[in-house]
Amino acid sequence: xxxxxxxxxxxxxxxxxxxxxxFMAYQLWFWIGLVLSVISMAILVFFWRAVYADTxxxxxxxxxxxxxxxxxxxxxxxxxxNDLVWEFGSNLREGMMIHHLLRPINFQGMNYAQNLGRLxxxxxxxxxxxxxxxxxxxxxxxxxxxxxxxFIVSALLGLTVxxxxxxxxxxxxxxxxxxxxxGVLIQGMSFFLSGTLVPIIMMxxxxxxxxxxxxxxxxxxxxxxxxxxxxxxxxxxxxxLTQILWIIGMWILSxxxxxxxxxxxxxQGG
Amino acid sequence: MSVIEVKDLTKVFRIPKKDPGxxxxxxxxxxPQFENKTAVDGIxxxxxxxxxxxxxxxxGAGKSTTIKMLTGVLMPTSGNISVLGRDPHRQRxxxxxxxxxxxxxxxxxxxxxxxxxxxxxxxxxYDVHPVKYRLMLNQFTETLELDELxxxxxxxxxxxxxxxxxxxxALIHEPKIVYLDEPTIGLDLLVKERIRDFIKKECISxxxxxxxxxxxxxDIEELCQRVIIIDDGRIIYDGPIDTIKKxxxxxxxxTFDTVENVNGLVLPxxxxxxxxxxxxxxxxxxxxxxxxxxxxxxxxxxxxVSDFSLSEPDxxxxxxxxxxxxxxxxxx
Lengths: 270, 332
Hints:
The structure holds two protein chains of two kinds. Chain A is mostly helical. Helix content of chain A is 73%, strand content 1%.
């Protein structure tokens, strides 16, 4: 039992460690991504400065607070990103899915490990963006350890919510075998509904209801709100509990759906 | 002792049927129509431990579908499969530990990783003991000539290099059962030869049970004692390779392109000249009585030859002939 768990952990660690290597296979992407990130961040900052041109505060947030939130949300946006839909799509298309299912290992666990690997890699790659944000746009990180703790726990939980949620969506590709539309739709929705573009607190009440009834905000909006103090730290336990409930719900849904969907696998060839 | 037992195995695919054109596409959106296609139709067979069996049939006969069900990734529509006493679909993960699979048309290696990284990962997944792994890796590096390949990402490999790597990946954990689905597809003769040699040495010496699908009869002749021929989802022959070889493998045809028309060729015993167009000499010979080189040298001694080719008996032909009663056996 313990030996098995140890073996599984070592396998998951191997999958985790594989992702940075895959990233490095395409070095050009690193540079292109960096330039694009800095440009997007600059656009966001100038946009919000323009919005605040005539007013000192929106929904109780001053310009500086909003900018801190937007910059941090931008930096931590990989938390809401996920390649599962693309992964499933290309795996099904290229027939790799069969090989993954033929491994004596929990397929979901393997993907979770890879997802963590992706996150860590992407966050490392954000370091130059962080430097630009600090030097050019006045980003300041909180220094309070408790705040960071609240954020990290919430971020890990939120990441897990998103993993199971994307897992559920990815199962759709077993039926559609088409991923481009689905992938782009999810990316767009995630950008807006996760609270990367606009702090959730600024949204009108009806939109807030929508945002909080879909899981996207759990990964970026909620943790970064904790980090910037928009959600007070005393609220952290309640936030965590909500996120745990999200995880349980999404886990059940996605696991059931996968069990049914995997039967759909019909890889071409006689 | 049977390690694989298959009984009345059937797989029916439901395929969306679309009328041609935009109209048909729109109609399909609202009232999808489906067509049932029976890919595997009530087949039964047993495989004993250590057997190497050729599972052959023309394209679309149902070979890969059978293999996918045996490996557990595809759920049968009906019928029973038992692999080492397990239901491979229900106990997919346990089953996976004891099998090795090569699909000739797709790769199990990580495209962007160097081969050695893929192999390390696979060894870890299958819990191969590090000492054992090093031993196997050294052995494979030698027999499959992987030396120069280990550091190359799979995406930069040639087809033959890829296949050698695939075999290493599929066998590094010494599985009890190996499924090889078209392992030599698209490879040139030299590489084919090397791959067959490797399979023979590796699998026989370790007593692995091997199921090999192919439509290359050469693979089968080299490796298998027993063949199962499948056509249109049904087994039409299950028995020793010798019967097939005697009946169909006896004759070969060799064709020469000559610079002038030739009359009155003297041929060795067991060879006969067939009708052929101008500037071509086509000869059929009995392999038990003569050899290709004997025929070639005899002909070349008599006429000037610009080119020649040797043709193998075609699997499609054999299937047709079996239907016509060539084996004096009722098709099942």
